[in-house]
């Protein structure tokens, strides 16, 4: 719970009573590797904060190929926020890449926090902005860099992650085949 509180307090001030109210709404959820936090074709039901583990956002392209477009690891929020807020069907999956432990908030509880705590919308707005900026910072260079540079950038942005997740997901995220990634890894060592 402390990790969640410390994370939130980076984006705004809350008193002890407000913090207790928020933490009182959090439920613990354990996801096993390959289980889904949110699925395409279903309405996202919760917002999560990752205590342990890694999840990925993925979708299937028009050729039926699975594409990983981002990873989220410990001490970060995870949700399909836009579709969660609007309560509309998701178009992508959020899948546990490793066993995960999360603190989760239902839509009802998330709304109750927003309706009770003055300034909560400003805090969550800053959190969302931060998450979007991180995603853009990580994805933008991938468009113009060669494959080796993309892999080296990935290692720099996600230290230690490459040893925790399947290489097929890393390859998909980097826009290359698993064979190409294996060759690059062999040459980089």
Low-pLDDT segments: none
Can you tell me the CATH architecture of the largest domain? Sandwich
Amino-to-carboxy terminus distance: 38 Å
In quaternary terms, these chains amount to: single chain
User: CATH homologous superfamily of the largest domain - what is it?
Assistant: Jelly Rolls
- Per the CATH scheme, the topology name of the largest domain is Jelly Rolls
User: At the first level of CATH, what is the class of the largest domain?
Assistant: Mainly Beta
Query: Proportion of β residues?
Result: 15-25%
Strand order of the biggest β-sheet: 1-8-3-6
Rg, Å, rounded: 18 Å
Distinct helical segment count: 8
Helix content: 40-55%
Biggest sheet architecture: 4 strands, antiparallel
How much is the average pLDDT? Answer: 92
Gross morphology: globular
Structural class: alpha+beta
Q: Number of domains in the coordinates?
A: 2
The helix/strand series, from N terminus to C terminus, equals HHEEEEEEHEEHHHHH
How many β-strand runs? 8
Explain how this protein is built:
The model has no long low-confidence stretch (mean pLDDT 92). With 189 residues, this protein is α+β, with helices and mostly antiparallel strands. The protein is built from eight helices and eight strands. It has two domains: 2-140, Jelly Rolls, CATH 2.60.120; 145-189. The longest helix is centred in the C-terminal third of the chain and has 25 residues, at 120-144. A hairpin with a 5-residue loop joins strand 4 and strand 5 (66-72). It has a four-stranded antiparallel β-sheet. The protein has a four-stranded antiparallel β-sheet with strand order 2-7-4-5.
């Amino acid at each position: 719970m402390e990790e969640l509180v410390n994370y939130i307090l980076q984006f705004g001030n809350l008193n002890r009573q407000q913090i207790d109210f928020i933490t009182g709404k959090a439920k613990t959820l354990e996801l096993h590797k390959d289980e889904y936090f949110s699925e395409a074709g279903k309405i996202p039901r919760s917002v999560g904060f990752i205590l342990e583990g890694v999840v990925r956002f993925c979708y299937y392209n028009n050729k039926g190929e699975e594409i990983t477009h981002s990873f989220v690891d410990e001490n970060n929020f995870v949700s399909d926020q836009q579709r969660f807020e609007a309560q509309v069907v998701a178009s992508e999956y959020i899948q546990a890449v490793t066993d995960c432990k999360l603190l989760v908030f239902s839509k009802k509880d998330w709304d109750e926090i927003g309706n009770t705590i003055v300034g909560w919308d400003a805090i969550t707005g800053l959190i969302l902005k931060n998450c979007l900026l991180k995603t853009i910072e990580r994805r933008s260079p991938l468009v113009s860099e060669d494959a080796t540079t993309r892999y080296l950038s990935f290692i720099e942005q996600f230290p230690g992650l490459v040893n925790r997740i399947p290489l097929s997901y890393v390859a998909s995220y980097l826009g290359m085949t698993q064979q190409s990634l294996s060759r690059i890894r062999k040459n980089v060592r």
